[in-house]
Amino acid sequence: MTFTERFVDADGFRIRYMEAGQGTPLVHFHGAGGLRVNPGHELLARQLRVLAFEMPGFGSSLENTRTKTMPELAATMAIALEALGLEAFNLMGTSFGAKTALWLALERPDRVRALVLEAPAAIRQPGAQSPAGTPEEMARRLSAHPERLASIPPPDPAVRTKQQALVQRLRGPDRDPELEHRLRGLTVPTLVLFGTEDQVIAPAMGRVYKDLIPGAHLVFVYDAGHVISTDRPEAFTEVVADFLERHEAFVISRAQTVIHP
Amino acid sequence: MKVSYFETARYAPPSALPSEWPVASGAYDPEAGAKAYRGMIERLQLVEELGFDWVSVSEHHYSPRILTPSPIVSAAFLAAHLKKIRIALLGPIVPHSNPVRVAEEIAMLDTLAQGRLIVGLLRGTTNESITYDLNPAEARERTDEGMALILKAWTEPQPFGWQGRHFQYRTISIWPRPLQQPHPPTFSLGTSRESCEFAARHRLGCGVSYGPFDVMAKSTRYYREQCERYGWTPTPEQIVYRANMLVADTDQDAHALLERQPKQAPFGMRTGLRDAFMRLDERNIAGEKRAPNVGGVLPTTFCGSPDTVVEQVRRCRDEIGAGVLDLSLHPPGSGDVEPLLRALELFGTKVLPRIRDI
Fold first, then answer.
1. For chain B, which residues make up each domain, given as ranges?
2. Minimal C-alpha gap between B86 and chain A (Å)
3. Which CATH superfamily, name and number, covers B2-355?
4. So what's the ipTM on this one?
5. Could you give the number of structural domains in chain A?
6. Secondary structure of B104-146 in the HEC alphabet?
7. Per the domain annotation, does A203 fall within a domain?
8. Sequence-ordered alpha helix ranges (H) in chain A
9. Minimum distance, in Å, between the CA of residue A174 and any CA atom of chain B
């Protein structure tokens, strides 16, 4: 599946995104490391129209000193989606981007059909540390199977500096009372995924989302780290696509066990 | 008439439970659970003394109302603590179990219990299918094949392979075999055409549950017709009717209790899930389509003073033809055991002796 690079002008930003596939749109917001097309995107794009955005201030975009809060970033992204004519879409947020996705879903529940939070960092264990260090050290924190990761090119120091400043400003406290209060009223069908080997956000945070968001579903992906869609792309894609199609009825298996007709 | 007491391990939650299915297991209280299981044995010793013929256990998952996810474990525990009463395993849910394992465990249990086991095999509803991630659309087929394989594993003296639709084994030869030969009294449980037909074809008993007499009678009539087609006649003891009963000193008291029963299931389901269940739980009474019961309560078909209940039992025998009543006594599913013990005493002393000859 080939992803095509595209841009959209919205809210005074020029926003880059990668797009592939047909069908129901699935909008994706990346984690604190920025946008990289990963095996999860590739597999999802076989069934859905995937639009993976680079949020303003990340990667190749200009430094973003204007956005002050996560709800502001979510508002900018909502404008970008509107500019693309996306009136109803599925929304997926990874780690840092899960919080952006949550704010967008809270503000525009009419537009978001279903929400997927991959290893969300919106609620963190006390003293949670972002991964840091050499590329090898980063890989060991992020992945349960760093040996399988394609070698990540060493980040451009300038990109890293501007992203880190933005992430520090927007990520908010480990526990964000305003967000958590609002989550009790979230009406969008929500799936929360954690890798059992997540070394960045404690998978036990999953139960907080479950407790707060009415009807939310929590799924642990065995033997995956923080980057679930990279560590276990097939397992990740199967449950995400099923949830996006059937929402809460996804608990009912459709697997066939016929061996011989 | 023979009488069975349906034991559900009455769990009394120390504080209010969440109201959504599946009930969060974090709300479970281990001490209250231990108390429920201790109470079960005390209660069943009384049930045995009162002269009940069987005690039955079932398989249900993810629910505080019936705390017996493994009927085999329940039955083994009861068999060890009770001396005379027969243990009816009405359970196990066949489609999500390994049929060879079920055959082995039942054979072992029947032998451990010195041949006191009764077995009922069933399909189970969609909510149970979810427990082990089974596709409910396949449950009926897996049940039929699983039951056929269980019967074969009990009775085939030579090692055999099984080339099924859903199950495949290269060689099966179970040890032990059941103490009761060729196997314990076995029932196919369910009101559907498929279940009754299977029972008739394999010369098994038939078990129906909860519905009004006239509706259950349609199933048992169909079952008897099918038995005739296969050239045999079932005895009354081969028809079990599981039902709720509210018995009190007077009709008025019993009806007052009935009034106080909840009017809907205690653990609701979110709409999307309930709608999916409604589609998948489609059922039939001897081939006649029926709406599924998702989020509703089960009817109480015996209600009144001992005199009234005796008459109802007589009518039940005439209409359904059941020779065994499997009773959930007041108040069904409740953890409040005091009224249950009073109802047991009342039934055991004032009703049971008078329905023996029905």
1. 2-355
2. 36
3. Luciferase-like domain (3.20.20.30)
4. 0.85
5. 1
6. HHHHHHHHHCCCCEEEEEECCCHHHHHHCCCCHHHHHHHHHHH
7. yes
8. 39-44, 70-83, 96-107, 135-142, 157-170, 177-183, 206-212, 228-231, 233-246
9. 24
SS3 state at B217? helix
Record the pTM.
Answer: 0.91
Query: Which residue of chain A is at minimal alpha-carbon distance from B132?
Result: A253
A246: closest chain B residue by CA: B272
Provide the domain limits for residue A78: 4-251
Considering the domain boundaries, does residue A257 fall inside one? Answer: no
A259 is a domain residue: no
A215 at B interface, C-beta within 8 A = yes
Q: Each residue's pLDDT tens digit in chain A (261 positions)?
A: 799 999 999 999 999 999 999 999 999 999 999 999 999 999 999 999 999 999 999 999 999 999 999 999 999 999 999 999 999 999 999 999 999 999 999 999 999 999 999 999 999 999 999 888 888 899 999 999 998 777 667 778 899 999 999 999 999 999 999 999 999 999 999 999 999 999 999 999 999 999 999 999 999 999 999 999 999 999 999 999 999 999 999 999 999 999 998
Residue of B nearest to A258 (CA): B166
Query: Strand, helix or coil at A89?
Result: strand
- Tell me if B138 and A258 make a contact (CB, 8 A cut-off): yes
Tell whether B244 lies on the interface with A, counting CB pairs under 8 A: no
Helix axes A96-107 and A157-170, enclosed angle (nearest 10)? 50
d(CA B221, CA B198): 14
| CATH at A77 | 3.40.50.1820
